[in-house]
Amino acid sequence: ATPTSIMVGTGKAAEMGVLFRKGDALQTLQEVEVVALDKTGTLTEGRPRLTDLSVGEAFDEFDVLKLAAAVEDHSEHPIARAIVDAAQSRQLHLPPVRDFEAVAGYGVRAAADGREVAVGADRFMERLGIDLRAHAVEAAKLAREGKTPFYVAVDDTVAAVMAVSDPIKPSSVATVRALHDLGLRVAMITGDNRKTAEAIARELGIEQVLAEVLPHEKAEAVARLQQDGHKVAFVGDGINDAPALAQSDVGLAIGSGTDIAIEAADVVLMSGDLNGITNAIALSKATLDNIK
Ligand code: ADP
Ligand code: MG
C-alpha cells in the first residue's frame, strides 16, 4: 500500500473511533484469519455482580460474606469488587486482615477475625487441599448458566459456593456474526472456568474456546492459534492481555481498558463497542482493494 492510501485509511478509521497506532496494522488486518477475544471486559462488560451465595450449614451467610469481602477488599480483580459491593450493600463491617496473598488466575487468601480465609476458583481450593466433591454439581449448574462459580473456604472447609455474572456487551453478538460473515474464525481466550466460558461462547456463536488459561499463558494461547501460519488478531483490555496483544499479528485494545493493554496494541478501539473490530477489518480490506 502507498503511504497516502494508508493515511487515508487510518484517517477514515479515526472517524469511526478506531485508532491505528501502527500504520502497517491496516495492511496486516486484511490477512487475518482468526480473531481471538479476551472474555472479561472485552466480550463482557467486565463488571460482574454477585448473583449466588449458598453457605454451608455450619456458617452464617453474613459472616461468610464479611470474611470474603474483607479479604477481597485488597484485590483488584473484578470478582473482588463484586464481593465487596455485595457486602457494602448489606452494610457489613469488614474486619482487618493479615498476611494477604493474591495468586493470579487462582484467587486470594488472608487471615481475618482469627480465621484462615481463601476465596477463589476450584483449582485454588484444590491447591490448598480443600475437598470440593460435595459442591461439584452445584458449581457445574452455575457455570452452565454462564456464571462464574467460586468458593469461600474458612479454616480449610468450604463455607460457601458463590457465583458472579458478567453481562455480555450488546455489541458482542453482532460483532461475532459480522466476523463470521467476513469468513473469519472466532476464538475466546479466558482464565475463567471451562463450562462458564463454553456457555458464553455458545450464546455468542463463538466456535473455539481456550479456557482456564493462566494470566502468563495468554500469549502462548495466541501462539497456538498462529500454528500453521495463521494470522491472528487478538482483542483485549487488561494488564494480563498485554503479552497476548504483543504476540498477535494485530493487537486491538479496548480504549476504556488499561494503559498497559493500549501501549501493547497496534489498534485502539476508542469506545468499548466491539463493532470497531469489524469496521477496522472491513476498512483494511477496502483500503487495500483500492490500491490493487
Ligand atoms: P479472567 O480475568 O479471564 O476471568 P483470571 O485469570 O483473572 O481470569 O482469573 C481466573 C479465575 O481465578 C477466576 O475466574 C476466578 O475463579 C479465580 N480468581 C482469580 N482472582 C480471584 C479473586 N480475587 N477472587 C476470586 N476468584 C479469583
Ligand atoms: Mg479482560
From TrEMBL:
Keyword match Cell membrane: yes
Keywords assigned by UniProt, alphabetized: ATP-binding, Cell membrane, Ion transport, Membrane, Metal-binding, Nucleotide-binding, Translocase, Transmembrane, Transmembrane helix, Transport
An annotated Gene Ontology molecular function: ATP hydrolysis activity
GO cellular component: plasma membrane
Protein origin, superkingdom: Bacteria
UniProt-annotated location(s): Cell membrane
GO BP terms in the entry: copper ion homeostasis
Family: Belongs to the cation transport ATPase (P-type) (TC 3.A.3) family. Type IB subfamily.
Protein's name in the database: P-type Cu(+) transporter
Organism: Persicimonas caeni
Lineage, top ranks: Bacteria, Deltaproteobacteria, Bradymonadales, Bradymonadaceae, Persicimonas
